[in-house]
Write a structure and sequence with these properties.
- By secondary structure, this protein is α/β, with parallel strands linked by helices.
- The chain folds into two domains: 151 residues, Rossmann fold, CATH 3.40.50.300; 80 residues, no CATH class.
Length: 261
């Protein structure tokens, strides 16, 4: 069943209360209530145009809600700009790989790790190739399987490798809450399976809210699933309950048994 008016809990990494978003007369999100427990992988599914990416934009600070509240680890972050939300421990990926194509894999990860290593942007100061920043980049490269591609320009990587790099950049920022927006989009079945395993292996100690259309990935990864249709959540529950929910099947799953939307 949809969740309503959820009191914040110490066990919640992310709580949305009554989130609505309008653009002119168009209502994209309508009174969305959502709780994501710390340490869970929580999937957000629904047909195209349901409002999932808009919700991600509101949570990550790229768009302010028209009404409602966003809490990150109990702190009200409603309407804060994206860079301030990121500094409070939330990072997101996008539907299209968002990397620096002319920088190497290593340098992409060093850029992502600067804030978590206590470094701000300073054009007059070189970063060097050693020290904590380089160690952090090297550690993350190994975790996402790109150690052999350290010197390659990100723009020369395959699409699946770019998505792995983007995941690495999210990890390098050391965020505790990750928003992953369609991480397997554009991948074949084998690539999707490998990406799902990579997410499972690298995000065990983090909270993940994931938008995904591949139902094998969703049901294989998720602790809980929420279903969004026309800007509203129609159900939230464990994967077995969502799979058997007749309203969900009529609105979404029944059209795509075991496949992509």
């Amino acid at each position: 069943m949809p969740e309503k008016s959820i009191p914040p809990s110490a066990a919640d990494a992310l709580v949305l209360e009554g989130i609505s978003k309008r653009y002119g007369s168009a209502r994209i999100l309508n009174e969305v209530h959502l709780r994501v427990a710390a340490g869970d992988v929580h999937a957000l599914i629904g047909p195209n145009g349901a409002g999932k990416s808009t919700l991600f934009n509101v949570v990550s600070g790229l768009a302010a809600p028209s009404s409602g509240t966003v809490r990150l680890h109990g702190r009200d972050v409603t309407g804060l700009p994206a860079h301030r939300v990121a500094r409070l421990g939330l990072s997101r990926s996008f539907q299209v790989a968002n990397v620096f194509p002319r920088l190497s894999v290593f340098d992409n990860l060093r850029c992502a790790a600067m804030r978590s290593c206590g470094l701000g942007y300073a054009w007059w100061r070189g970063l060097g190739r050693a020290g904590p920043l380089a160690e952090r980049a090297g550690e993350v490269m190994a975790r996402v399987g790109l150690a052999q591609r350290a010197g390659a320009a990100a723009g020369e990587l395959s699409y699946a490798e770019q998505r792995a790099l983007e995941l690495g950049m999210v990890l390098a920022a050391d965020a505790r809450v990750l928003l992953l927006d369609e991480p397997t989009a554009g991948m074949n079945r084998g690539e999707s399976a490998r990406m799902a395993e990579l997410i499972r292996a690298t995000c065990r100690d983090r909270t993940v809210l994931i938008v995904e259309h591949d139902m094998q990935v969703v049901f294989g990864l998720s602790d809980r699933i929420s279903v969004m249709v026309r800007g509203e959540l129609i159900a939230t529950g464990e994967p077995s309950g969502i799979r058997d929910d007749e309203a969900v099947r009529r609105a979404y799953l029944g059209r795509f048994p075991g496949g992509r939307s």
